[in-house]
Specification:
nine-stranded mixed sheet, Rossmann fold, Alpha-Beta Plaits, single chain, about 400 residues, globular, four-stranded antiparallel sheet, alpha/beta
Length: about 400
């Protein structure tokens, strides 16, 4: 493909991504994957160039552009070489009109800037759109295995036990250690939440919003085999992805439970007041994961944020019902907004006098309003807020 044709392909992809962001549709990665699946003629260099154009535009604009063309024209303001490709040639974008709209604006949507926690300054906000490092968690029993030792010769140790950073681009899932269940890909921030849970020495654990099971698998790796872990979620597709992961690592102490939305308590009624630890990794805006999913900025609106915070408060209350006396609850969000993290915890504690926040001992993160804050700039992790609460 010629450079102009690559640019036009990026514009077409951006049009789809913008509509999906507006209508809560498929992710940018899913749209790009489907686009290339239907266009086998695009070679590897073509795909790389098109993808680079798309993500350069997504990362540049905090507010959703009106179209893929306006986004690419806005990107051309920063990269004059792109402007020359609007030449009207076959399969390329048409020439630029004198009155055409060009996307502009800041990296962070204006309406959301004031909602960041007080420790997230401009440098922190810019780091949210940098490139995420590749972190892995090594199964404790696999540290001395030859294949793992060989892999870790290229790795950098991280502050948590058995956590390492690998060079970006390492094909972890193609390696024998991954296939043998000896390592997992997991951001250090997510591993920190697991470490906080392990410190509580629980015998019965409920991972209420388990998704595909990243934290569930981490708990299983670091807790004794007799510990019982129940992983539940309302999303059948995400929960089903945990099954092959459990088989790969041989975790026999995990049970999965599919929940019915708004009727979650029915399937978990037998656990009421029985769990030593409940983890509520609640759905959120994902502001802490913009490095990986920058188009999330185009999806969030004030109305969606309000609905999300209402769901978080309901799930926090629901999770608390399964905690035994003296047990712990960890509430976590991959968000750096006050509305989704500290405000939720403080509201819960105001209406639940038999609960208190407790400290956890971790070598990373910063204390912030009843919890711990993790961020890309300060900790090299995705952005997280989490709080450990105890039932009195």
């Amino acid at each position: 493909m010629r450079p102009a044709a690559r640019l036009q392909a990026a514009i077409e992809l951006l049009d789809e991504i913008i509509l999906a962001a507006r209508d809560d549709g498929a992710s940018a990665d899913a749209i790009i994957k489907k686009y290339f699946k239907n266009r086998r003629y695009a070679g590897s260099k073509d795909r790389r160039a098109i993808r680079d154009h798309v993500y350069a535009a997504i990362r540049l604009f905090g507010d959703r552009p009106e179209s893929g063309r306006s986004a690419m024209l806005g990107l051309a303001n920063k990269n004059p070489e792109l402007e020359a490709l609007f030449d009207g040639s076959d399969y390329g974008p048409s020439e630029i009109g004198s009155e055409e709209n060009r996307a502009d604006g800041s990296l962070i949507p204006a309406w959301i800037k004031s909602k960041f926690v007080g420790l997230i300054d401009e440098a922190e906000q810019n780091a949210l759109l940098g490139r995420a490092d590749l972190h892995i968690r090594v199964h404790p029993q696999s540290i001395g295995e030859a294949s793992v030792v060989s892999l870790l010769s290229e790795a950098t140790p991280l502050p948590l036990t058995n956590a390492y950073a690998l060079p970006n681009g390492t094909r972890v899932e193609d390696g024998q250690p991954y296939r043998d269940g000896q390592i997992e890909i997991q951001d250090l921030g997510s591993q920190a939440i697991v470490a906080a849970g392990v410190q509580q020495n629980p015998k019965i654990v409920l991972d209420l919003c388990a998704g595909a099971g990243g934290k569930t698998m981490g708990l299983a790796a670091h807790l004794p085999e007799m510990a019982r872990i129940i992983a539940s979620d309302t999303d059948r597709g995400r929960l089903s992805r945990m099954t092959p992961r459990i088989a790969r690592v041989g975790a026999d102490n995990i049970d999965t439970v599919l929940l019915h939305p708004n009727r979650e308590a029915e399937a978990l009624q037998h656990l009421t007041g029985q769990c030593d630890l409940v983890i509520v990794d609640a759905p959120c805006s994902g502001t802490g994961t913009w490095r990986r999913n920058p188009e999330l900025r185009w999806r969030m609106t004030a109305k969606r944020l309000q609905k999300t915070t209402e769901l978080q408060q309901r799930l926090l209350q629901l999770g608390s019902e399964f905690v035994a006396e003296g047990g712990k609850l960890i509430f976590a969000v991959c968000s750096l907004l006050n509305d989704e993290g500290p405000n939720q915890v403080e509201k819960f504690l105001q209406i639940q006098p038999n609960w208190r926040d407790i400290e956890v001992d971790l070598p990373l993160g910063r204390p912030y309003r009843k919890g711990i804050l993790l961020s890309p700039y300060h900790d090299g992790t995705d952005g997280f807020y989490f709080s450990c609460l105890e039932k009195l």
